[in-house]
Specification:
Blueprint: H1 6-11, E1 14-18, E2 23-28, E3 33-38, H2 53-61, E4 63-65, H3 67-72
Antiparallel strand pairs: 1-2, 1-4, 2-3
Protein backbone atom coordinates (compact mmCIF):
# COMPACT_ATOMS: atom_id res chain seq x y z
CA UNK A 1 0.00 0.00 0.00
CA UNK A 2 1.30 3.45 -0.86
CA UNK A 3 2.85 5.57 1.86
CA UNK A 4 1.46 9.10 1.94
CA UNK A 5 4.48 11.43 2.04
CA UNK A 6 2.67 14.63 3.07
CA UNK A 7 2.95 15.67 6.69
CA UNK A 8 4.48 12.33 7.71
CA UNK A 9 7.69 13.19 5.86
CA UNK A 10 7.72 16.76 7.18
CA UNK A 11 7.51 15.76 10.84
CA UNK A 12 9.21 12.36 11.06
CA UNK A 13 12.05 10.16 9.98
CA UNK A 14 10.40 7.42 7.90
CA UNK A 15 11.66 3.89 7.33
CA UNK A 16 10.47 1.85 4.35
CA UNK A 17 11.00 -1.79 3.46
CA UNK A 18 10.63 -2.76 -0.19
CA UNK A 19 10.91 -6.54 -0.05
CA UNK A 20 10.36 -7.02 -3.79
CA UNK A 21 13.79 -5.46 -4.46
CA UNK A 22 15.32 -6.44 -1.07
CA UNK A 23 16.01 -2.86 -0.10
CA UNK A 24 15.12 -0.47 2.69
CA UNK A 25 15.10 3.32 2.77
CA UNK A 26 15.43 5.90 5.54
CA UNK A 27 14.01 9.40 5.10
CA UNK A 28 15.80 11.89 7.37
CA UNK A 29 13.29 14.69 7.87
CA UNK A 30 15.86 17.12 9.34
CA UNK A 31 18.38 16.75 6.50
CA UNK A 32 15.57 16.10 3.99
CA UNK A 33 17.63 13.27 2.50
CA UNK A 34 17.02 9.64 1.61
CA UNK A 35 19.41 6.86 2.59
CA UNK A 36 19.39 3.31 1.26
CA UNK A 37 20.20 -0.05 2.81
CA UNK A 38 20.15 -3.21 0.73
CA UNK A 39 19.37 -6.48 2.47
CA UNK A 40 22.49 -8.03 3.99
CA UNK A 41 24.43 -4.75 3.79
CA UNK A 42 25.03 -1.62 5.86
CA UNK A 43 23.42 1.69 5.01
CA UNK A 44 25.17 3.53 2.18
CA UNK A 45 26.92 6.65 3.46
CA UNK A 46 25.79 8.83 0.58
CA UNK A 47 22.14 9.80 0.21
CA UNK A 48 20.17 8.84 -2.88
CA UNK A 49 18.14 11.25 -4.96
CA UNK A 50 14.54 11.81 -3.88
CA UNK A 51 13.45 11.22 -7.47
CA UNK A 52 15.12 7.79 -7.54
CA UNK A 53 12.86 5.31 -9.30
CA UNK A 54 13.59 2.62 -6.72
CA UNK A 55 12.76 4.95 -3.81
CA UNK A 56 9.50 6.02 -5.44
CA UNK A 57 8.55 2.38 -6.12
CA UNK A 58 9.20 1.69 -2.43
CA UNK A 59 6.86 4.53 -1.47
CA UNK A 60 4.16 3.12 -3.75
CA UNK A 61 4.55 -0.58 -2.98
CA UNK A 62 6.68 -0.85 0.15
CA UNK A 63 5.81 -1.10 3.81
CA UNK A 64 6.56 1.42 6.53
CA UNK A 65 8.72 -0.19 9.23
CA UNK A 66 10.19 0.91 12.54
CA UNK A 67 13.63 2.39 13.08
CA UNK A 68 14.58 -0.75 14.98
CA UNK A 69 13.60 -2.99 12.06
CA UNK A 70 15.64 -0.80 9.72
CA UNK A 71 18.69 -0.87 11.99
CA UNK A 72 18.48 -4.65 12.41
CA UNK A 73 18.42 -5.06 8.64
CA UNK A 74 17.09 -7.98 6.65
CA UNK A 75 18.74 -11.01 5.14
CA UNK A 76 18.97 -11.61 1.44
CA UNK A 77 16.47 -14.28 0.35
CA UNK A 78 17.87 -17.36 -1.25
Amino acid sequence: MAINKGQLFVDNDVFIDYAFEEVMFRWDHVERKVYVRFYGEDEKSSPVRQDSGLFNQAILSGEQITQQQYEEGRRVSE
